[in-house]
Amino acid sequence: MANLEVPRELREEAKAHDMYLHPIDKDTYELFFGPQHMATENFSIILKMDGNRVEKAIVNPGFLHRGFEKLAEQRPYFTNIALLLRICVPESDVPENIYSMAVDEIVGWEVPERAIWIRTVVLEMARLSAWMFWIMGFGNEIGLYTAGQWAAAYRERFMRLYEELTGGRVYHIYTVPGGVRRDIPGDKWLRQLRDTVEYLKGKLKDFDEILFDNYIMFERTEGVGVMDKKFALKHAVTGPNLRAVGVPYDVRKDDPYYLYDQLDFEVPVLKEGDSLARVLVRRYEMEQDLYILEQLLDMGPPSGPYMVQDARLKALPRFKPPAGEAYAHVESTKGDFGAFVVSDGTHKPYRVHVRGPSQSHGVTVLEELLKGARLADVPVILKTLDNCPPDIDR
Amino acid sequence: MDMNEKPKVEEKVQEEATVEEKPTLPDTKEGKLVKALLEKAPYAEGEVIRERRIKFIVPADRIHEFLELASEKFEMLMQISVVDWLKEGQFEVNYQLWSVSESVHAFVKTRVPRDEAKLPTVMDIWPVAETYEREAHEFFGIIFEGNPRLGPFILEPREYEKHPLRKDFNMLSYVKEIYGEDFDRYDESKTNYVI
């Protein structure tokens, strides 16, 4: 290592930016983790390592920045749906819904009951397929590949249901301001959804045996990346990560939207705040989501129109809501996902700001939790926080 | 639907605009929250938007003081959104707070001039503000005094100090400047361009 020659100017410049281009001393070195690494999903962390331990971590986002907020200001209201849903790929229905809810509030539309029911079902389906996607990533991280492959296969069932409902598998462009784009295909689709729910309920036991009740998972996650209640609140951590430190905050209970105040479900809370608690909270939530979908199917879709009846919808590109602003948020698998929409009375939104849950737990929290972790724990912490890089970059 | 029929929503909005009544705080948990905060901070204006949504307007020089008071009830800072009001020459900075104990979302709005946009950092109240302030600084050029990490965050170094989310930043001409001949789809004579 001693022969590693770096030009003096380059070394000084790097040093001015708080980086070192060569081993700092015998044991300390700098490691660029991602964005090409599988575990990081287009995300990069610069780690300062001391042997096997992380001494300092610097989050380095920006690899997924596509300027959605600027683009949204240059498009008519309804066109923006096809743009904003690309923010979060595993559950693309969430950005659609928050944006539509905010526009509904600005216009003052009362969304028909049937559309509300369909939107609730779609959001719960999105949550379940996002859990499957998460198991896929997390299972791979700790070496339990079988669970990941099963989850990918079960997610396919939801993809098929989505394809029949909306025409798209991953990106649906289905929820629009005022309702949904088209009606549910019929009773056969509802039967298929119920079959899928029943099937997954059985398969959850298999997941327990292979992943959630597995010795390897406990060994890898217990006591890793611990945060406490005060730290989590000050850093605006939301979703399962917050519930794993003992705060029972769930948007579906605390700021009810759609049909959630009529549904009966529990908010699982654990106190430990380590990676294991975060994993187990997600496991319990999966069960609750299946239970919610079952209740919704028992309720059945109310009759009536699936889109609000308004003459302005005949000329969509020139559709103008009144001036105003609204903030809407929903509970996604990553946490509290929100959209702030400002209208100045023209046919394009004046400003759209999306609150990605990973923006709070993916930057400062991640940097704090990685301090002192082993190198092998880095992907585990990243995955149990459920960091979704496009939330940060947008 | 009958095309000649006037939409109901428009009428409602017009009615609300004509009636100017003095805002009174309702006797709900939202109204009580606003009242309690305004008693401690008489320089601010507050109102209840609807159930679980409240709003405050605070002068920029007292924003830190106000947010410190608000942080007793509002445990989480959900995000800092900036709106660029170009015609008025001002940035509107929205601090969006959430109270876990009360289940209320609060907007705290303040305005700063566009050419000299400076605000104190709120990292000492909510450490997560560091990330939001870095974003607001990069995209709008607002300086948060006391935040040590204001610098390149998401954008590439060549885009730094350009502040792309400002309303006077023309994205298309910037792209043309960077990519030149390769970007031949853009025709400057066209107005109302949709890519």
Secondary structure layout plus pairing:
The complex is a heterodimer of chains A (394) and B (195).
Chain A: H1 8-16, E1 28-33, E2 45-50, E3 53-59, H2 68-72, H3 81-84, H4 93-107, H5 113-141, H6 145-166, E4 175-176, E5 179-180, H7 187-212, H8 215-221, H9 229-234, H10 240-243, H11 251-254, H12 275-299, E6 324-331, E7 336-343, E8 351-355, H13 358-361, H14 364-370, H15 377-384, H16 389-393
Antiparallel strand pairs in A: 1-2, 2-3, 4-5, 6-7, 7-8
Chain B: H1 8-18, H2 29-40, E1 45-50, E2 53-57, H3 63-70, E3 76-85, E4 90-99, E5 104-113, E6 118-120, H4 129-140, E7 143-145, H5 171-179
Parallel strand pairs in B: 2-5, 6-7
Antiparallel strand pairs in B: 1-2, 3-4, 4-5
Q: Write down the secondary-structure element order of chain A.
A: HEEEHHHHHEEHHHHHHEEEHHHH
CATH architecture of chain A: Orthogonal Bundle
How large is the share of residues in beta strands of chain B? 15-25%
Tally of alpha and pi helices of chain A: 16
Q: What is the approximate shape of chain B?
A: elongated
Percentage of residues in helical conformation of chain B = 25-40%
Q: Structural class of chain A, please? A: mainly alpha
User: Strand tally of chain A, please?
Assistant: 8
Give the full name of the CATH homologous superfamily of chain A: Cytochrome-c3 Hydrogenase, chain B
Classify the secondary structure makeup of chain B into a structural class: alpha/beta
Q: Oligomeric form of this entry?
A: heterodimer
Number of strands of chain B: 7
Keywords (chain A): NAD, Translocase, Transport
InterPro entries (chain A): NADH_Q_OxRdtase_suD (IPR001135), NADH_UbQ_OxRdtase_49kDa_CS (IPR014029), NDH1_su_D/H (IPR022885), NiFe-Hase_large (IPR029014)
GO molecular function (chain A): NAD binding; oxidoreductase activity, acting on NAD(P)H; quinone binding
Protein name (chain A): Membrane bound hydrogenase, NiFe-hydrogenase large subunit 2
